[in-house]
Amino acid sequence: MTSAAEAKTKLNKFEKIKAAKDGLAVKTEIEEFAQIGWEAMDTDDRDHRLKWLGVFFRPVTPGKFMLRLRMPSGVITSEQMRVLAEIVQRYGDDGNADITTRQNLQLRGIRLEDVPDIFNRMQQVGLTSVQSGMDNVRNITGSPVAGLDADELYDTRQLVQQVQDMITGNGEGNPEFTNLPRKFNIAIAGCRDNSVHAEINDIAFVPAFKDETFGFNVLVGGFFSAKRCDAAIPLNAWVKPNQVVSLCRAILEVFRDNGLRENRQKSRLMWLIDEWGIDKFRREVETQMGETLEAEAEKDEILWDKRDHIGVYTQKQAGFNYVGLNVPVGRLYANDMFELARLAEVYGQGELRLTVEQNLIIPYVSDSRLEALLTEPLLEKFSINPAPLTRALVSCTGAQFCNFALIETKNRALALVKELEAELTFTKPVRIHWTGCPNSCGQPQVADIGLMGTKTRKDGKMVEGVDLFMGGKVGKEAELGTCVKKGIACEDLKPLLRDLLVDKFGGTAK
Ligand code: SRM
Ligand code: SF4
């Protein structure tokens, strides 16, 4: 066998799929796919390459696709929200949308024959879903109150947008970055409370001053996977805002050209850093960037506990407030989306923000309009003052739509906290995160109580269960939680959680 052929056979299945045809190539074929229908499509195009356009075949609901958007910093206009509402409304009971743990939206029920039209309508309002799945850079997160928060150090919205534009070719798709060894996450924080979970991103920029000049310390390699989870480590670099795009480009190029592609379980950036050591990695990045990186600032400016942004807060703009609504487990229906667009226009300035806790913010509500907004019926469903467990509940998609799921998550998570809230009172929220399988999309490792779906044996039968994680800390001095108990049958979970909430989180019986 030639060494080229040998190298090829060593590539994992997904590398072979990408080598046979670039993921983004399906962009020019979408009209044809829409005409022939999903049943007639090549399965690699249907199941994998379509994800380069943000279109996900769902084996759980064949023919009803999921569409994952890109929403830099979680900012969405009311006009965009309305267009997305019209799209999901078309699918009746099949249609809905979820706010994701990356400050983003995913739409459900999408029929392939409608995708060309959907893309046209998205383009008209400046939305793109390009490169939002598979081996691409995912939605880039930033503070959800960037530009509003009186205490922010830097408004990162423009930077987040510039990084997205560089990676996605201004939303048209960029072949330079469509064949990374694996998925890639970037977060840019300009706030004091680490509202982006910097530590769980492949690259994170956290605010830090040097001689009173504002810049960012850079962390690299954070990730969760079924086999391994690691917090990001310092690159020992401090960059000014105008270096952020070029540093992201250099790191991505180094990862693209050197990242490990044989074993898909060992392809995330941290595995390359392990192999090289952080010093060599840093040198390679400098060479690629053509610049010497400054050493990191002694301390960063993440000094606060993490805020959840739910409730009413004054903005830095005098006379204006942002109003954070709790969207239980992030689930929205078409009517909610139309209403949200209307509220943002009537009471705000036609803009909404999404958070990594799967909630939503209406900014620019003037003092004089605030009281009227608070009497709107939608705020009964999406409360500004929810019960303490519902307030901090996060859940991944789970078995309803995700074929990796070992358990149902969103509905179960919500039902359980309602039952617990009926029995217990709390003085502060307890952050419970559910995730349907070890992929950890629901980030159980950042929660006070993390629940990861599994199968377990009870009375001789396999049943749905969870592994229990504890110790996740967010905000300043963030730390990942770890698994403390395995294989709890879901039907036995409530008494166990009840005891835990009473013993460790100040829950008291009503
Ligand atoms: Fe995720 C795969 C949903 C955030 C780690 N994730 C999937 C897929 C695409 C699997 C699939 O094809 O069915 C899920 C789609 C289900 C569906 O129909 O919705 C899925 N992930 C999600 C979302 C929607 C969970 C949510 O309910 O919010 C989040 C979408 C974010 C976005 O807008 O882009 C989501 N996924 C995450 C996060 C959290 C984060 O980024 O902060 C993680 C852990 C962090 C990380 O990636 O380092 C995460 N998802 C994974 C993994 C494990 C990655 C790995 O390196 O092994 C997979 C599996 C894979 O990629 O092979 C995965
Ligand atoms: Fe699906 Fe597992 Fe991710 Fe949940 S954690 S969305 S079940 S892949």
Q: Mind telling me the CATH class of the domain at 390-509?
A: Alpha Beta
CATH topology of the domain at 390-509: Sulfite Reductase Hemoprotein, domain 1
Strand content: 15-25%
What is the CATH superfamily classification of the domain at 390-509?
Sulfite Reductase Hemoprotein, domain 1
Shape: globular
Mean pLDDT score? 97
Quaternary state of the chains: single chain
Can you tell me the CATH architecture of the domain at 390-509?
Answer: 2-Layer Sandwich
Which distinct ligands sit in these coordinates?
Answer: siroheme, iron/sulfur cluster
Which regions contain 5 or more consecutive residues with pLDDT less than 50?
Answer: 1-6
Strand order of the largest sheet: 1-2-5-4-15
Task: Compute the separation of the termini in Å.
Answer: 72 Å
Number of E strands: 24
Helix content: 25-40%
Radius of gyration computed on alpha carbons: 22 Å
State the secondary-structure class. alpha+beta
What's the number of helices?
16
> What summary fits the major beta sheet?
5 strands, antiparallel
